[in-house]
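Run log, item B.
One chain of 284 residues. Sequence copied directly from the ordering sheet:
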Amino acid sequence: MLTFTLGTFAIALNHLLLISALALATFVGWRVARRGGDNPESVLFSLFLLGMLAARISFVAVYWAYYRNDPWQVIDLRDGGFLAWPGVIVVLLATLYRAWRRPGLRRPLGFGVASGLAFWLLATFSLSIYEQGTRLPEIALRNAAGETVQLADYKGGPLVINLWATWCPPCRREMPVLENAQQQRPDLTFLFVNQAESMQSVATFLETQGLSLSNVLFDGGGRLSQAVGSMALPTTLFYSPEGRLLGSHLGELSDASLARALENFDTVPATSSRKLPCPASATC
């Protein structure tokens, strides 16, 4: 499961874990402060924001080549571009500084930060282990010719699956990024699996937007999104040649965030090319 869904509301599990860690840290800090010390609630929230800022700055610095031509993208946080460990280090250093400056905060702040970080690390590690143990679903889809193709037939090489719809603004914004990646990375197979829309509406969208995509497939009942546990669009999944999930990205991809996600394949051994279930045409 990649998202937590309640009615029409959906949130990525990794985001939910981060918010839960902050809530736990605040609760533990408050409880400890009741026995003696200052309430660390406002300090914990400021540390959280500081850590997020450090994580974003670190990501932009590492992937600056993708931002230099359009610096405004730096403040567009929708691409999910964050590096966790620099953020954690900054939070720890800032915690030591705050504790040194305000003795009354030391115990509540220390217990709060320790409990929040421990929860986040353990939960994130468990989620990663769970995700990477999942396999490519055995699901039948349709191509633009209306023919049935098996998703499992695409195994045998690195696979990127994008779940999208034409009515989804983030899907539309990220499509040129994925189109360019498909052209630049012939060693990877990109599948664009449309969710519950007609072939005609998708063909019209691609034509009007001037997009040339290979391997456009159709999932009329949204079964693939249910199988992978993500009810949010767009969702992009990264599978090894053996069909093992290497990683996922919920939300809009930028050039930088896609480049980072594709690093999942850096340790995947090269495999011989295989024949795809349908020709690589603009609407296949």
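Observations after the first pass:
- The first helix runs from residue 13 to 34.
- The beta strands are 3-6, 9-12, 140-142, 148-150, 159-164, 189-195, 216-219, 235-239, 245-250.
Flagged for discussion on Thursday.
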